[in-house]
């Protein structure tokens, strides 16, 4: 979920921006010119996936897939997410310029964390490790993002407590869906093009 | 999918040097994001509206965009008024909306929309490629700029690919519902997009190498600010500075506002 302009306090915005600059710096350093087209194309998939709405009871939710992006890109997920969010900010005014840092860190930090936590599991030969790793990756990356959004609001002001609680609650069903979908995508990739999952391991 | 209709105009702001527009938009957004004074927020809102009129944008298009972007703010209106202690404004069952709560929600709404309107007036009036091009001239790291160019370019390609796969699914009688079959189908759709995109990115890089790519992007177009643009940018920056000074002066000292 993007936090819009004009909500967060200065210290939160500044912390987000600083961390994003650091993360993007590391990400760009680990991305050589040969990988730029790949990161860009995956960043576009990430952008397009956020337009896919999957049904959930009477409503629908859109895919986030930051965990999957982390699995595929490792540290390069940072610049990839930054670019996708910047384009959303200037094309649709979703998110914004001052919140770009916070929104990027909220999405990219869980992505990179999931890469380090489950990157090995999904490339293993054991079926249960792949399924478990992929599910946790999708489930936790969205959960952590929700938590970071809630924390960004809480650090802005205690009055956002109710808002933060509702946001965490709203993330629960999405976490399950993302977990399930990440499992199926990873299984599909392992069958059709396993080297996609392995390139990130080689680069980082 | 991506509607850049607002960038097709002939107003002064449309032809403005994108580098200056990015600079003004950035200073203005940061300043307004840090404002706390209600009066100054109203002033900023007025300034943003002046910018919108200056860009001669179709109001219906701007309003439609505002409506979509305000989702988060609407959500805050449902919760924030009930999250503050203070004088009661109205009550729904056990929930009590207070004056401070409504005041806070109103403040966020003004702040958010003042920034968004300015971004629409200044940034949506340039084609995205121009803005990224401007970032290149503003010394943003070259790898990041290349990522912007490629991502923006391939969003269109991949979206077309997605609609094609989606249509194929529908023709085969796919009806989405809340079940495992639906999730599996969408996952395979995403998987297929990833596989095709990955192969595409290999081909892109090969063809770049064939054309002698060595890591640098050569630009043929260079921006130039006309004197009129420099003056206008200076005026806008001065207004932003005045707003900032108004915020950080001790209360009671502000005569002008």
What would you report as the Rg of chain B, rounded to the nearest angstrom?
24 Å
Shape of chain A: globular
How far apart are the termini of chain B?
43 Å
Number of domains of chain B: 2
Strand count of chain A: 2
- Tell me the strand order in the biggest sheet of chain A: 1-2
- CATH architectural arrangement of chain A: Orthogonal Bundle
Task: Report the biggest beta sheet of chain B as strand number plus sense, adding barrel if it closes.
Answer: 2 strands, antiparallel
Number of domains of chain A: 1
What is the mean predicted local confidence, pLDDT of chain A?
90
CATH class descriptor of chain A: Mainly Alpha
Most extensive interface, residues per chain?
A-B, 72 and 83 residues
Q: Can you count the beta strands of chain B?
A: 2
Quote the beta fraction of chain A: under 5%
Q: How many distinct helices of chain B? A: 9
* Multimerization status: heterodimer
Describe this structure in words.
The complex is a heterodimer of chains A (204) and B (257). Chain A is mostly helical and 204 residues long. Chain A contains eight helices and two strands, in the order H-H-E-E-H-H-H-H-H-H. Chain A has a two-stranded antiparallel ribbon with strand order 1-2. The longest helix of chain A is centred in the C-terminal third of the chain and has 32 residues, at 161-192. Chain B is built from nine helices and two strands; from the N terminus they run H-H-H-H-E-E-H-H-H-H-H. In chain B, strand 1 and strand 2 form a beta hairpin. Chain B is mainly alpha-helical and 257 residues long. Chain B has two domains: 5-126 and 225-248, no CATH class; 133-210, no CATH class. In chain B, strands 1-2 form a two-stranded antiparallel ribbon. Chain B has helices at 18-34, 38-54, 59-69, 71-79, 99-122, 128-137, 142-171, 180-210, 227-248, and strands at residues 88-92, 95-98. In chain B, 67% of the residues lie in helices and 4% in strands. The interface between A and B is large, with 72 and 83 residues.
